[in-house]
Amino acid sequence: MQAGRIAVAAVFGAGLVLALAAMPKRYEVAGISMAPGLLPGDVVTTRWLPFADRWQRPCRWDRWVARLPDGSTGVKRVVGLPGETVSIEEGDLTIDGELILKDPRTLAEVGSLVSPPIPAVASTSWSWPPTRVLDEAPFAADEPSRRLLPVRDVGLAAVVGVTGTGGARAQGRCGPLTVTWRLRQAGRFAIVAGRLDGRAVAAAWRVPEAVVDPWPSRSCLPVNWPRQWTVAEAWPSGTDQPAMQSPALALDLASSESGASADIEQVAVWRDVLYRPPATGTTTWQMEPDHAFLLGDFPPASRDSRHFGCLPTSALRHRLRSRP
After folding, report:
1. How far is CA 228 from CA 57, 104, 220, 271, in A?
2. Is 72 part of any domain?
3. Domains contained in the chain, number
4. Are 107 and 77 in the same domain?
5. Is position 4 within any domain?
6. Does 11 map to a domain?
């Protein structure tokens, strides 16, 4: 009988250990290297079965908890994969000589709002003239003074409400890009268009009706991001504004039928992250096999692969779950 009890206890104990090992791990963020998406005091979690991450191949744009060369642990974003050549050119990232385009989810995490989303007061038209946008960071008010640089990659993000039957038409413009969407059903929709990583990008998607605030905390895009852009065309050469000004932006709505109406509920202007080379001036790094290149989302306050080079993939401990 005693042996049976011991066996049951051992099985229960082993099961408890396995269950605890399968649970997501939690980490508290320190510092602003991953701002604006992650700020000091935020708690991030891994996926289930975190012990299995050591056998996972890193994917571009994923955030990982990594063991850094100084022995500390930090959260960084994987941008360069084994065998690739990473370069920083005019604030953008290139991989093997090609500009690398962020998907909507990544832009939502690394981008910043030039101004917070504002109600458009039931408007059907909105515009924003060419403006010189700098890589300012309100969350870094206590950071030592730094030289602000202009950002070319800027766009619009809006939440549109459609009521009645017949749907509506939305036309978004960013510099030379004009995209028209047919919103055939009633509901709320996100409309996004802009200049990003050497491309003109645009997408529209449905915002769930149950969502009260369509802008997640610290995100530059409305919730429910798609996996890819609907439009991603090479930015026409010679169309950038002088003095590194951002392109003009505009959004216009029109009802498809008399029984329908469409309004701009909220609208905002976003900007992409501006990557900066380190103080040494190095702009290109060659990845070794089984190594990855990691960056922080707020380059001025991040110590990452720009400074200590690529890291072995074995230094990647846990992949973080994407925040909603």
Report:
1. 21, 6, 16, 18
2. yes
3. 2
4. no
5. no
6. no
15-24, 84-93, 100-109: the lowest-pLDDT one: 15-24
CB atoms within 10 A of CB 54: 11
- Most confidently predicted of 6-10, 112-116, 203-207, 320-324: 203-207
Per residue in 214-243, pLDDT (tens digit) is: 988 889 999 999 999 999 999 988 766 666
Checking if the pLDDT of 21 tops 70, the result is no
3-state helix, strand, coil in the chain (%, to 5): 15, 40, 45
CA nearest to 201, candidates 159, 237, 231: 231
CATH of the domain at 108: 2.60.120
Q: What are phi and psi of 101, to 5 degrees?
A: -90, 130
State CA 209 to chain mean position distance. 23
Q: Please give the average per-residue pLDDT across 10-22, as a whole number.
A: 46
138 and 59 share a domain? no
> Quick one: how far is CA 157 from the chain centroid?
14
CB 83 within 8 A of CB 204: no
- Phi and psi at residue 264, to the nearest 5°: -85, 110
Same domain for 84 and 160: no
Which residues lie below 8 Å from residue 112, measured CB to CB, with a gap of 6+?
Answer: 36, 137, 220, 270, 271, 273
User: Which residues does residue 65 pair with via DSSP β-bridges, in sequence order?
Assistant: 75, 318
What is the average pLDDT across 47-72?
87
Q: Is residue 112 domain-shared with residue 191, that is, in the same domain?
A: yes
Whether residue 116 is found in the same domain as residue 175: yes
Q: Measure Cα distances from 8 to 11, 24, 162 in Å.
A: 5, 26, 61
Do residue 244 and residue 118 come from a single domain? yes
Host domain of residue 315: 21-88+285-319
Residues 6+ apart with CB under 8 A from 191: 156, 157, 158, 159, 160, 170, 172, 181, 204, 251
pLDDT tens across 270-279, in order?
999 999 999 9
